[in-house]
Specification:
Elements lengths: L12 H13 L3 H7 L3 E3 L7 E2 L1 H13 L4 E4 L4 E3 L2 E11 L15 E13 L2 E9 L1 H7 L14
Helix pairs in contact: 1-2, 2-3
């Protein structure tokens, strides 16, 4: 097989989106980290991750959801250096324990979300994922507990 080098700036956003979603669906944390050259953040993380941290997080989620699948629900929307990806995540927590959970719940997740992606030089630089964390927790059969400091009067 012969590979041809393609200049980074010639990679269409749709191709970048396919590579990113494809790496998630391949359950390949290293591939996701290779596609995202900067940082990844979502509501379940205390701070954005980079490099090996992205790979470890993807591998952990795929271990927790062995049947994890991300489906693009619309064509990517690109404005300037931003790309918005609408997606739906499906999976059953039948594998490894999730952080903070006592054991795999067996709960199935069917969750819509959006990634806001920063592009530069034909590459994905940063990804900020948005989804309803409360729905995610409830679909897993877990309960949301607010700490005393988090409650509102």
């Amino acid at each position: 097989m012969t590979y041809v080098a393609v200049p980074a700036q010639s990679v269409p956003a749709e191709e970048l989106a396919r590579a990113y979603v494809g790496a998630w669906n391949a359950h390949d944390g290293a591939a996701v980290a290779a596609v995202v050259s900067g940082s990844y953040g979502d509501p379940t993380l205390p701070a954005p991750l980079r490099g090996a941290g992205v790979a470890e997080m993807v591998d952990m989620r795929c271990a927790a959801f062995p049947d994890l699948h991300v489906e693009e629900t619309a064509l990517p929307l690109v404005v300037g250096n931003r790309m918005v990806l609408q997606w739906r995540m499906h999976g059953t927590n039948s594998g490894a324990r999730l952080p903070g959970a006592p054991a795999p719940t067996g709960g199935t997740v069917d969750l819509p979300g959006v990634d806001v992606v920063t592009l530069a030089d034909g590459r994905i630089v940063d990804v900020v994922a948005y989804f309803d964390q409360k729905t995610f927790i409830e679909q897993l059969g877990l309960q949301v507990h607010l700490s005393r400091g988090a409650r509102r009067s």
